[in-house]
Design goal:
There is one protein chain. Helix content is 22%, strand content 39%. It is built from 3 helices and 13 strands. A hairpin with a 2-residue loop joins strand 5 and strand 6. The N and C termini lie far apart (49 Å).
């Protein structure tokens, strides 16, 4: 009987937490499209070298529908991959290279510790993410999940961490919207992996 009660409690907690994330996602999306969010935008080349770094107090990201392909009936056959960003009242158009945009309150840990030669070695038995987390453990204290974002050639370009992480599709092809502890992260034309902290075992060598 006790096991049955505990099962119901766990299921209830899961539903409640999932619901909270859904509400947080809805609220974040509404705020971004209505008022904009204070965010940092960074773009990278295929080798994960940063091209630019822009911050604004009011950022909104949508798909530029002028580039949608349509058929003779006016129906959209292919959605545009062109981004239409409004940053502090100024318009930015972007397409092609990898882009991330993250809300104030999130930290790109890989950007904070950019000296990659200190965390890269020839020991293939210890993956990059393990070496990085172990080297900069303090940066991840209290986090239960870590998000490693890679360029289109598979080079690490950004790392974020949080206790509550969820993700969803967007109206922009090749993009994902993530919510990390209530803060928005937008990823465009990047690979990414979400790890639980206890899966990142192993020692730095």
């Amino acid at each position: 009987m006790k096991k049955l009660v505990m099962t119901f409690i766990l299921v209830g907690l899961t539903v409640t937490l999932s619901g909270c994330q859904m509400i947080d996602n809805f609220t974040s999306n509404f705020r971004q499209q209505t008022y904009g969010l204070p965010m940092t935008v960074q773009t990278y080349d295929a080798s994960a070298q940063k091209i630019d770094d822009i911050h604004g107090k009011s950022l909104s990201i949508t798909r530029d529908t002028k580039f949608d392909q349509t058929n003779s009936d006016g129906e959209t056959t292919k959605k545009s991959s062109v981004l239409d960003l409004t940053l502090g009242g100024q318009q930015i158009t972007h397409v092609g290279s990898s882009l991330i945009a993250y809300q104030d309150g999130l930290t790109n840990v890989l950007d904070k510790y950019p000296k990659r030669e200190k965390i890269t070695n020839s020991d293939a038995s210890v993956p990059f993410m393990n070496r990085f987390v172990n080297r900069y453990q303090n940066a991840f204290s209290g986090a239960s999940k870590v998000i490693l974002i890679r360029s289109q050639l598979g080079q690490p370009l950004a790392t974020f961490a949080g206790n509550a992480v969820s993700y969803q599709s967007t109206k922009v092809p090749s993009s994902t919207a993530l919510l990390i502890d209530g803060k928005r992260l937008f990823v465009y034309r990047c690979d990414y992996t979400i790890y639980t902290m206890n899966s990142l075992a192993g020692s730095d060598s």
